[in-house]
Every structure is written in structure tokens, then in C-alpha cells.
Amino acid sequence: YFQLKKYPLVIASLSGLFEQTRDDDAKTEIAGTMYRSCLELKDYKAGLLWLGKYAELGGKDLDKDKASVPDWLAGLKDSELQEVFDSPGPEWTRGEAGFLLGQRNYQAGSLKEAKNTFSTLLSRFPNTSHKAELEQLLAEAEDLIQVVPFRLGLILPLSGAYQTFGERALKGALLAAGIFSYPKSPHKFELRIENSLGDPELAKEAARKLVMEDHVLAIVGPILNPVATAVSEVSEQLRVPMIALSPAPGLTDKKSYVFRNCMTKQSQVKTLLDWAVTEKKFTKFAVIYPDDKYGAEFAQIFTEEVKARGAELVKSVSYPPEETDFREVIGELEPRALQYGQAEKSQNLPLSFDALFIPDAYEKVGIIIPQLLFYRVKPQFLGTSSWHSDKIFEHTRENYLEGAAFADLFAPELETKEIDAYRYRYEQAYQEDPGLIDLQAYETVALIIDLVEKQRIGNRKELVDALKNLKTWTGPLGPVTVSPGLEFEHQVHLFQIKKGKFEIVK
Q: What pLDDT score does 345 carry?
């Protein structure tokens, strides 16, 4: 029956025979066959009993069967593993069951249960082959269990090329924590600050320190994409909530502890195209973009979103980031432009597209658009949030930008009471105008403080659950909702430039 793989018949035939026979060799063979039949049927609990009998009789294939124990133990439920761990038997079954059970609890974030199992296992089997790993896991579990609910960690670039962004975010976070409140802050929150220096590996070590030594409740940041991606791995591994301020693609995908509070490239493009296709009825688009990571990502997203709306992308042209002469780019964008521009100065060129997307900084926009207009290429210009600065008018004439549209999350032009209150506090503290990055850091820290204080949150899992269930929390950027994908969702605003002013269209 065993050779024919009729395992239920094996068990029916042999189970009674084991007790009847007095021949040890026969009993050994019966026990081994019963054990292997139970494994084939995935009846691991019964298989364990037969394995014990086989071991007592000194089965000849015992070493091979011992080696298979971890594999079939993996098929047991937690309650069954606990039963094996607590039942009489050899170390190589009980010890493996306890080790696997502790690992499961540890990976699920049930740290107290994991700690108890690891401690009991070391006590029962002090010479276990897993001793070194158990001691390390036990120490980590003890460190992870310790959480200071009123302590947050920040990982920001506070030196190097992106120091300005890091310092801005830090200013917003300090303001939210009440550091500058006089005479005394209403909050008792601590902020532990780590400088990432823009280095992913240094940032990962900083994250581990914040969790294992400083025992922070959550991590806020990082800002830079590669750093945020690296720290997200540590956050997920250690089951510590992280609220990133980075637009890194896919940052929160398949994550349970990694949240994001940042306007993404995709949200900007969607807002632009919802307006351009749905309201303006544009059907043909073009894009010119710098041949760097920033420009290429925007161009790819724009291409995908145009096609998703059933519209047509007529042209996509890249240029070197340091380019200043756009004659060739314009010729590739609209081949007739160079000749037409010289011959017909009084008329705009009939174009093969309705709108042109230029994902570049306002300094470069001040170089590109005058050259486009010189050659009578005057479509609907579409830009990014980097256009949202009065400095754009220092680089090009106001009338050149008339009607240009872009999307942004930061909208001080709304003059809501929340934005006005934040602007006043920020200017009082730092004697400068606020911006989006400090506002997002402020909002993130203020939101965590509000949740902890109102819901009396005492551990990381409670904070994760509170964030996942967030529906309508209102801050300076308006109502906030956390999506199923762990993204902080805000209303992104559409702007048009009208007579040198930024007007909110939608």
C-alpha cells in the first residue's frame, strides 16, 4: 500500500498491528512506515507520535527523518506547535517547534509572546543548536518591546547637498512638537534627530538606533528617495511605523508599517490631465523634459496617464539638463516651427498638439518658453509644482506665462484659517515664509501627537491601526485621509497663471 501511495490504507492496516507484534524490527519498520504515511497525508500531529516511537526503537533512517522535522513542523498551526513544544519528547522535535513558534510570533509583531517562548526554550534546552540565534532574537525582542510613546525619531538630510530641505522639515517638526511654545509646551513629546547625510546605509543604521536604543514610537522622514526606500526596509523589518516625506515610486507598496505624506509626481499629473482632458477637452499632448531621473519619471507618468484617458501623446522629446539652446528641441517637437517662425512673425504656428508639458524648474522654464514663443509655438503650457514661486517671474515675463497651468498641494492663496495660523506661527519662529516641505513635516508630527494624546496610544501597533483608520483629520493642508495604500491623501489644487498671479482654478 505504501509503494502504491495508498496512505490511508497503510494507516488502517498497520496502526493496530504495532501494539500486537513483539518483534522489535517489525515494530521499527511499522513505526517508520506510519510516520512517513502521516507526512504524506499532512497529518503532522499523528506523524510526530509515530516519529517518537520510531526514535525510541532506534530506526536506521532516524538522522534523515530528524533532518525533515523543520520542514513538516512548518505545516502545523501555532496552537499545534505550542502543543508539541509543551509535550514530552526529544529536543529535536520540541526545540524546533518552540523555535519556529517564537519566530512566527516575532515576525507577526507579537513580541511579548516571542520573548516568553525564546526564554522558555533556552531554559528547557540550554544546549540547543539555535542558542546563539535565540539569544540575539531575545535581545532584539526586549529592545523592540520598549517604546517611549511620547518620543519620535526624525531622519533628515541635515548636511550636504540637500541640507536646506532637511532643515526646513526639521523646523516644521519642531514647531509641531511645541518646542517654541512660551512659557511651556502643551505637549511632552521628545524628538530624536538623526542626520542621514543623504546616505541610504547610514540612514538604515540611524533607523535601527532610533528603534533599538532610543525606543521611538515612530520614524518621520526621510525626504530623499533612495534613503526613504532603504529606511522603509528597516521599518518593515522591525515593525515600526514610518511616515516618509519622499515621493519615491512604490515606497508603500506591499508594506504594513510604511506610510507616506508627500505629494507625488503622479498626483500632480493626474490633477493636470483631469482638467486638461475632462474640462478643456484637449485630446493631443506633447512633453519636453530634462534627461535626468526627475524629468524621465515625470515624462513616463505623463505618457501613461495621457493614454489611460484615451488621449494621444504626439511627441516626447528630451534634452540635456544643462541645455540652454532649445532650437533643435523645438525643431524635433514641431518640425515646421523653425522655418515658420522666421517667415510668419505675426501668427502663431498651427500645432499638432493642444498642450505641452514641461516638467522642469522655473529657472529652466524661463529659458525654454521665450524660445518656444519666438518660433510661434504657443500651446497650453502645463508645468509642475516647481513653477509655484514668484521667482518664476524673475526669469521670464509675466505675459509669456499667461494661462499656464500646474498642480500643487501647497496653496497659501486659499488663505484658510489653518494656513494663516500656520504661516503666523512659522514666521514668528523663523522670520521666513513657510513652504510645502516644512508644512508636511509639521502636519505629520502634529497628527501623530494628536492621535497619541487623544487615543492614549501606548505602542507602535496601536499607532499603525490609528493611522490606517484615519478618515478626516484637518491640518494646514486641509482634510487628510489615509488610503488603503498607506498614502496621506489631500486635495491637490490646480493653478493657472493670470496677470502675474497664481489663481486656483480647481
A: 57
Question: How far lies 302's CA from each of 269, 320, 482, in Å?
Answer: 6, 19, 24
First to last CA, the chain: 75
Closest alpha carbon to 414 in 432, 438, 388: 388
Which grid coordinates are listed for 186? 502643551
pLDDT value of position 439: 95
Q: Quick one: DSSP state of residue 76?
A: S
How is 364-378 classified by DSSP, letter by letter?
HHHHHHHHHHHTT--
**Tens digits of per-residue pLDDT, 96-120?**
899 999 999 888 778 888 889 999 9
390: burial class by Cβ within 10 Å (0-12, 13-18, 19+)? exposed
Residue 247: which of 236, 261, 235 has the closest Cα? 261
Q: Pick the range with the lowest mean pLDDT from 177-186, 227-236, 249-258.
A: 177-186
The model's confidence at residue 342, banded by pLDDT at 50, 70 and 90, is low
| Cell of residue 117, nine digits | 517562548
* Three-state SS at 414: helix
Dist CA 438 CA 171 (whole Å): 6
H helix runs in 21-61, sequence order: 24-40, 44-56
Banded model confidence at residue 19, pLDDT cuts 50, 70, 90? confident
What is the C-alpha to C-alpha distance for residues 490 and 406, in angstroms, rounded to an integer?
A: 16
pLDDT at 166: 97
Amino acid type, 115: K
Burial class (CB within 10 angstroms; exposed 0-12, middle 13-18, buried 19+) of 91: middle
Report d(CA 288, CA 381) in Å as an integer: 11
Q: With H, G, I as helix, E, B as strand and everything else as coil, classify residue 17.
A: helix
Can you give the pTM of this predicted structure?
0.75
Distances (CA, A) of 135 to 70, 161, 239, 396, 436: 20, 41, 20, 65, 46
One DSSP character per residue, 441-455 reads HHHHHHHHHHHHHHH
